[in-house]
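CORE FACILITY INTAKE
Project code: CF-77B
Contact: R.S. (postdoc)
Sample description: multi-component assembly, four entities in total
Requested service: structural model of the whole complex
Turnaround: standard
Below are the sequence entries exactly as provided by the requester. Do not edit them.
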Amino acid sequence: MEHFDCANCPSRIDSPFHELSVDELTKVQNIKSCTFFKKGQIIFHEGNRPGGIYCIRKGKVKLSRLGSDGKEQIIRFGKDSDIIGYRSILSGENLSATVTTLEDTSACFVPKKILFDSIEGNPKFSLRIMKEMSRELGEAGRLITNLAQKSVRERLAEVILVLRTTFGETEEGNVDISLTREELANMVGTATESVIRLLSEFKEDQLIELKGRKLKITNPDQLARIGKVFD
Amino acid sequence: MEHFDCANCPSRIDSPFHELSVDELTKVQNIKSCTFFKKGQIIFHEGNRPGGIYCIRKGKVKLSRLGSDGKEQIIRFGKDSDIIGYRSILSGENLSATVTTLEDTSACFVPKKILFDSIEGNPKFSLRIMKEMSRELGEAGRLITNLAQKSVRERLAEVILVLRTTFGETEEGNVDISLTREELANMVGTATESVIRLLSEFKEDQLIELKGRKLKITNPDQLARIGKVFD
DNA sequence: CGATTAATTGATACTTCTCAAATCCTGTGG
DNA sequence: CCACAGGATTTGAGAAGTATCAATTAATCG
């Protein structure tokens, strides 16, 4: 695998690593290792103790955890410029989620020592990490509220909109992520069959178009009303 | 209100402020203001921009947010030595939750400048904050999974156990927190009537004892089985 | 002690789950 | 490139779990 150059990494702009000095970045550059993951591969396994974090250079991953019945729950996604695994490193706990690629993904592994060194030596870097965690905490709170209070139908409508916001659209206007019906169910917290039935309804009502796993949103406003999304 | 002494604050041991030097702590000590809140008072209001954080010296609070139907969702609790409001400060977003006291509470307000100064000047303090946020993120993921996958019955059983773990027991063996049925419903994400019915069932099955809002757990193992809590 | 809020109980309706069976895709190897 | 195996998707029917509405009763707070 090619050893990518951090200084030119297009993902760095959105990342805490943007805050590092040239010297600090060089240290990262010299010690990191770049890896390529094929679609469906597992990067981190829930319960393990990682030796460092991954910066996603290009690709898409899902973070999921197993419920008490062994069912997968998708917690959130990661994509270009996102950092994966730092929660576990910072808390000193085992990994709370499994990270699986949703498409071919290239990512760089940064050992945890570098992470701690950067925190030790660069408050701006620390602050940037905290900011990121804060955003995630806020997002988690929103998700908690939605799961607790919204119906399955409402949650699915919202999830569809969230996916578009997160991953954007392809040239053809499809939401730029390919998920199985089961994965959608594992985001919403419902049975696969329920997702299928509700998607059919949404299609019937001309809110979306479906071609296999390709999904196009044709009436986002109505979808937002159904999902009670008021942003 | 008395101006409490940080150096002798019993809550400091468990708090990020434990990492501050004597000089740094003196700065906090001189600028902070101590406040007393009666039961039911609101400390922070969702949507506002706080000018700083609160250290809870002694007391209990709930963090909750409003769902799209205006229903309260309780996200988590705070008690002695917990810090409230830092998420919003660090992310620069509005407060994502309302903080309400569940009993009389004394807390100290620390302006955000001090918080940022401490992060700037003391990496150990930063790390301690990050550790705390990491734990909360892990906790949030667990909650998300439970809400998405468990039944109302299971969630209620778990909530009862979580409350005991969080707040401990009184001398009489009751869970040391007083919540209305509605508040329990707003944790579980269900209707108040459902909580009442299920609590009656649990009582019928001799898993718990109920006297008004006093709740005693008499069969935690069975409750854990029902709640599918495998810790 | 009223007055208000909280808790309880009952009846009914609805949403969602579960199980089963049939088709449709997708990725893979020949 | 094509056929095939195994997984993914779809549809149906019935059961179960919760929500909702309404009416009482109990508890709490000035």
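Facility notes:
- Strands of chain A lie at 33-37, 42-44, 52-58, 60-66, 72-79, 83-84, 98-101, 105-111, 208-211, 214-217.
- The radius of gyration of chain A is 19 Å.
Invoice: internal transfer
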